[in-house]
Write a structure and sequence with these properties.
about 120 residues; alpha+beta; globular
Length: about 120
């Protein structure tokens, strides 16, 4: 699973024109904090893993670009990947692109617009 997560992150970064060396963190929902693929990928990239509580993800829901009805029913947010990325990047963050979804992994890239 770690390989699938790493490949999804790499593909998302490439799609957004972001160098892997320029990322500051990997983020996920707190509920996924112990998923080996996510933990291993953060370690491989040499960045901290930010585990975002559901209530913080909900605060960014209006800025998500996509919606999964299944995820909304389970988590109360339109996209775990997008809302976790937005929450981790801060209140003035924005998505660089809609999430990238593979059969097993979903990834989104957000940047902080803080000045």
């Amino acid at each position: 699973m770690a390989e699938a997560v790493f490949e999804a992150v790499a593909a998302s970064l490439e799609r957004c024109g972001v160098a892997p060396s320029s990322i500051d963190a990997l983020a996920t929902a707190s509920a996924k904090s112990d998923e080996a693929g996510i933990v291993t990928t953060a370690r491989q990239l040499g960045v901290p893993l930010i585990c975002v509580p559901e209530n913080e993800m909900k605060l960014t829901a209006s800025r998500a670009a996509t919606t999964s009805t299944r995820v909304f029913a389970l988590m109360g947010v339109p996209s775990v990947a997008e809302t976790a990325a937005l929450a981790a990047a801060g209140p003035s963050s924005r998505l660089l692109a809609p999430r990238l979804a593979t059969p097993t992994v979903t990834c989104a890239i957000a940047v902080s617009e803080a000045t």
